[in-house]
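Lecture notes, unit on protein representations.

Consider one protein chain, 208 amino acids long.
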Amino acid sequence: PIGEIAQEQSTHFLRVALIALIAIIPAMIATPVILWRWRYSRTQSTYAPKWEFNKWYEGAIWTGPIVIVAIMSYWLIDSTRKLDPYVPLPGDELRIDLVGLDWKWLAIYPDEGIAAVDEIVVPVGRPVSFRLTADSVMQSFLPNGLAGQIYLMPGMVTRLNLKATMEGEGRATQTQYSGPGFTTQRVALRAVSPEAFEAREARAAGEP
């Protein structure tokens, strides 16, 4: 992750994966143990055909999943609130109007008066507010390293707010099948220093 949104998503994924192991690891350990202990050739194993209930086993079977689901539900609600793509981030935001074309991205910087095809550059430390739409068919914008996936539809505008916390390069990927060229709709999404971003603006505007 090179952005705070992607970092929070990564943290959420890792903690959910780790707590899920509480349910997975015992089953992975118990399966070979049970198979070995009650194998066909082991004649001294206890045979209890009328056994049907044990309150301690039953309590353990239900308590574990209930606790795990409760914790994961809390994390999900908390992350959903914090990672709402429509909520603006505090600060002087950079506006980018992004249009999904066949099969390329058109990035328009309305306040700077510049536009670029298959080139998306954002400054480090400054909130970025994307307004997204598609030109022909439904598409999906995935800014790897900066935020999660969000869909684009013709005639509609959706929003995505993010911020880069360090210089680096992610990848703007189109993940929705939209025709034979959609696999090539993957371009660099660069996070650069504020100075480098201003220099890029000046070059695009034709300033010396």
